[in-house]
């Protein structure tokens, strides 16, 4: 059996696609999401499914400990869980900002802390953080979301530098628009309609399997090779 991989936000979209591809490659999995029934419905072999909110550090740690007791040490963590609540800062509900920062930033830090010290002690392991093109440039109605994803980029690169001497890899993957449930979290119908129109103008967007393939590609290199960042969009996406 190959080494244990942990995926957050694995109940749909990118997380589900990553789970399917890593399982097909023979990895045992710990899948985390709030909709545990969706995880169980995937029916993947050698897989532990846990209902975990990534902002709950104790639950995150407990799930990892349970998975490691069954499948050995975590070799790969994919921090995929995320929220995209688009809005104009002048009028957006402030609770939406807090939700995004809690899930996209604090949740990611919770995951990294849960695995980093053991990885450093073993001199090996990989963390892949799913960010966004919105972590590299700004977009209308994306201010708070961009803030969370710029944070993901900064945290990932900072930690990568800190753990490189321990032979631990930290990789950032920054997709453009992807066909997932992410947009449905936004509460403004006007913003959602504009986003959908933008996707139509470019003739379609990335599929979750495209991102999953990038995860598997980056992870597949020998431990002494770190693909630090992958930025990927539909070819016709502008910007």
From TrEMBL:
Q: Name one Pfam family in it.
A: adh_short
Q: Where do transmembrane segments lie in this chain? A: none
Q: Which PROSITE patterns match?
A: ADH_SHORT
Keywords per UniProt: Oxidoreductase
Q: Which InterPro entries match?
A: NAD(P)-bd_dom_sf, Sc_DH/Rdtase_CS, SDR_fam
Which family does this protein fall into?
Answer: Belongs to the short-chain dehydrogenases/reductases (SDR) family.
- PANTHER family attached here? DEHYDROGENASE/REDUCTASE SDR FAMILY MEMBER 11, DEHYDROGENASE_REDUCTASE SDR FAMILY MEMBER 11
What is the protein's name according to its record? SDR family oxidoreductase
Protein source organism: Enterovibrio qingdaonensis
Classification from the root reads: Bacteria, Pseudomonadati, Pseudomonadota, Gammaproteobacteria, Vibrionales
């Amino acid at each position: 059996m190959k080494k244990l991989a942990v995926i957050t936000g694995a109940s749909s979209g990118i997380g589900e696609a990553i789970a399917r591809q890593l399982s097909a490659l023979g990895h045992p999995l710990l899948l985390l999401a709030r909709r545990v029934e969706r995880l169980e419905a995937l029916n993947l072999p050698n897989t532990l499914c846990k209902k975990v909110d990534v902002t709950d550090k104790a639950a995150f740690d407990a799930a990892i400990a349970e998975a490691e007791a069954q499948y050995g040490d975590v070799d790969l963590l994919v921090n995929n869980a995320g929220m995209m609540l688009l809005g104009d800062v002048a009028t957006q509900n402030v609770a939406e900002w807090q939700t995004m920062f809690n899930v996209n930033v604090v949740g990611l830090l919770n995951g990294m802390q849960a695995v980093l010290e053991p990885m450093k002690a073993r001199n090996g392991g990989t963390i892949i953080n799913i960010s966004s093109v919105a972590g590299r440039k700004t977009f209308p109605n994306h201010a708070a979301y961009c803030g969370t994803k710029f944070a993901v980029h900064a945290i990932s690169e900072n930690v990568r530098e800190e753990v490189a001497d321990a032979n631990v890899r930290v990789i950032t993957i920054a997709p453009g628009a992807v066909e997932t449930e992410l947009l449905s979290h936004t509460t403004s119908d006007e913003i959602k309609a504009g986003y959908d129109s933008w996707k139509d103008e470019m003739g379609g967007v990335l599929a979750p399997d495209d991102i999953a393939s990038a995860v598997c590609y980056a992870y597949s290199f020998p431990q002494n090779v770190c693909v630090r960042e992958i930025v990927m969009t539909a070819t016709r996406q502008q910007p």
